[in-house]
Amino acid sequence: MAALRICLLTRFPKSGQGAIAGTLSVNQRQCSSQPSGTPVGGTGMNLASLKRGTGGRSSFSGVVCTVFGAGGCLGRFLVNKLGKIGTQLILPSRTDFYYMQRLKLCGDLGQVLLVPFDLKDELSIAKAMKYSNVVINLIGKDTETSNYPFSEVHVKGAERIARIARESGVQKLIHFSALNATENPKPIIKFGGSKFYASKWLGEQVVKEAFPGAIIFRPADMYSHEDHFLRYYVSKLRRNFLFMPVWKKGNGIVKQPVYTEDVAEGVVNAIFEEGNEGEIYQAIGPRRYELGELIDYMFRVMRREKETGYVRYDMRLDPFFLMRVQFIQTFGWKYPLLSWERLEREHTSDVAYYEYPTLRDLKVNLTYVEDRFPFELKYFREAAYFDPDIAQFEKVRPPPILAD
């Protein structure tokens, strides 16, 4: 049993220069408990640093990847895709491992490791990426708390991860920002504009300074299972029964939502892309929609149309809804679904720049909203257990597509 334990421990390699870090030198015993590989980024090379297998789950892709924020919506998709191609994964988390253990099934036996860490503890961050050659930072917050404001998570925390990754010799760092990140966000509802977007922009600057070759992704609103986009609009707290309050009825507000799995595929392709150091990718969907029309489409999919009482109206004309937002933010839970910051981001138009590449440049076949929304919203439909006859309901009319 002791010999078996030693062999299993040495299956996870120390780091080397190739696509993965090395473990044992050739003249060492295979099950030695004293590995002596070279540090990440060093000049040494050994057999353990080479790719093995045919490229499947039980192979080794040559990548040892640390994913910060793997427990989030995007993290689950990304870890699953990386595990399928034989990536060794280190998943740091500050929560109980009980909430992360399902991710161990994404990879082969022993290839997904859970490690404790704290974003303010540099030693725990360094231990989490000690043997990695790729680091992905997915950490982000929708709302501020007393211990972790936006500046601590999006700026200081991002800078720590980038700096320690450079000091550890990590070859590729992928950092997640936001599509509309800018230094001075234009205020729409909230005085001073979105602090979320401002902190994301500042986080980009400190990451590029700490790790000049960092790859930055700017995702739009992502939708999938357990997301913060579709589930936000179908929530009873966001609407008044079947009445949906939207700033200026959602007219003139442009959105370009993207399927979460497409973003995860783009990240995997970016890892193996050569010569893309320092690149900024815009993770946007294939089509642009007006926010009001997109919300109407969601409710048509759920069979909640004007005939059933659904109405989209101007939020500015409903002081009771605005009072509810203020009450929830003042006296509600510290992670409120409804807040001024969330409403500010919700009503900010997505702006994409032609000079930056998108997921299409990473050879991702993008998913259309019209192909995915009916499945994602299926269990929110009116009379969901009713089994209709063929052609009993008319085909749902898709939302109008805006020109680029």
Describe the structure.
- It holds the Pfam family Epimerase.
- This is NADH dehydrogenase [ubiquinone] 1 alpha subcomplex subunit 9, mitochondrial.
- It comes from Amblyomma americanum.
- By secondary structure, the chain is of the alpha/beta class.
- It has one domain: 3-Layer(aba) Sandwich (Rossmann fold).
- Helix content is 29%, strand content 12%.
- The strands form four sheets. Strands 3-2-1-4-5-6-11 form a seven-stranded parallel beta sheet, sandwiched between helices. It has a two-stranded parallel sheet with strand order 7-10. It has a two-stranded parallel ribbon with strand order 8-13.
- The protein is globular.
Name the descriptors.
two-stranded parallel ribbon; 11 helices; Rossmann fold; disordered N terminus; seven-stranded parallel beta sheet; protein-containing complex binding
Question: Any chance you could write out the topology, listing elements then pairs?
Answer:
Layout: H1 2-9, E1 64-68, H2 73-84, E2 88-93, E3 112-116, H3 122-128, E4 134-137, H4 150-167, E5 172-176, H5 195-210, E6 215-219, E7 222-223, H6 230-234, E8 243-246, E9 254-255, E10 258-259, H7 260-272, E11 280-283, E12 289-290, H8 291-301, E13 311-314, H9 319-331, H10 340-346, H11 369-376
Parallel strand pairs: 1-2, 1-4, 2-3, 4-5, 5-6, 6-11, 7-10, 8-13
Antiparallel strand pairs: 9-12
